[in-house]
Design brief:
Blueprint lengths: L1 E4 L3 H10 L5 E7 L2 E7 L5 E8 L5 E3 L3 E6 H8 L7 E7 L2 E7 L3 E7 L18 E6 H12 L4 E7 L2 E7 L3 E6 L5 E4 L2 E6 H7 L8 E6 L5 E6 L4 E6 L8
Antiparallel strand pairs: 1-5, 1-7, 2-3, 2-6, 3-4, 4-18, 7-8, 8-9, 10-14, 10-16, 11-12, 11-15, 12-13, 16-17, 17-18
Helix pairs in contact: 1-2, 3-4
């Protein structure tokens, strides 16, 4: 196996984000590219990372499943500069990571056994609401909500997308179809702000965020580029807001 990325920036940032949810993952490499699917220890969220074959400058693989400690991997990837090329190779029970720039550096990480069955990111969920929003606008709305609560609601009403938190105090942001793309039916679902804040760190890198939700339904968040696709799934909070 030999994978070479000319620009490892998005891959490195994605690994950083995933490491906030899970410590150990199975990294799958096959004819289609590299992928990771994992569930956080609390079984509240799920994450999927895909790097297609077309993103790699060099792509020589047999089908591989690599058990990786993300804390160790992200520390190595942070050593990449903006002009560095990244090479990943399997060497027996190690993942060899080469950072090629003015200086050629080589790291070796021990591959590990990751317990649990292989996971698949669910493709069967149906959503009544799909919203495309500028990432920074959503980040700001989530930060507003975190001032007054530990959860917020995503609401579609009267053709508007609303992000709202209500406890003793409240915060509310409204977006019309002039500001965001809305393909949705009226609905409402409530989600943990702690998880949303973790997911939306990706919004610093991806200009747009794609939201998919329905009444009291899991939330799917997508971030997309030609190089990396990053998706999160978050269970709803079913509780009274009075």
């Amino acid at each position: 196996m030999k994978l070479k990325l000319e620009d490892a920036t998005l891959f490195s940032k994605a690994i950083d984000l995933i490491s906030e949810l899970v410590l150990e993952v199975k990294m799958k490499v096959n004819e289609y590219g590299l992928s990771i699917v994992a569930i956080d220890p609390a079984n509240v969220s799920m994450v999927s990372l895909k790097v297609p074959k077309s993103a790699f400058k060099e792509f020589v693989v047999d089908e591989e499943i690599l058990g990786v400690n993300l804390d160790n991997l992200k520390k190595v990837l942070r050593r990449c500069g903006k002009t560095s090329e990244l090479v990943l190779e399997r060497n027996e029970n190690n993942l060899e990571i080469k950072i090629e720039d003015k200086i050629r550096r080589v790291f070796s990480l021990n591959l590990i056994e990751v317990e649990g069955e292989d996971k698949e990111f669910p493709a069967h969920l149906e959503y009544s609401s799909n919203v495309t929003i500028e990432s920074q606008d959503l980040i700001d709305s989530i930060e507003d909500c975190s001032v007054v609560s530990d959860a917020c609601s995503f609401i579609i009403e009267e053709g508007k997308f609303v992000v709202e938190a209500k406890e003793t105090n409240s915060a509310r942001s409204e977006f019309s179809s002039d500001e965001v793309k809305i393909e949705a039916e009226n609905c409402k679902a409530r989600y943990s702000l702690e998880y949303l804040q973790k997911f939306l760190k990706a919004g610093k890198t991806f200009k747009e965020t794609y939201l998919h939700f329905a009444n009291d339904h899991p939330l799917k968040i997508d971030f997309k580029s030609e190089v990396v696709s990053l998706s999160f799934l978050l269970a709803p909070r079913i509780e009274t807001e009075d």
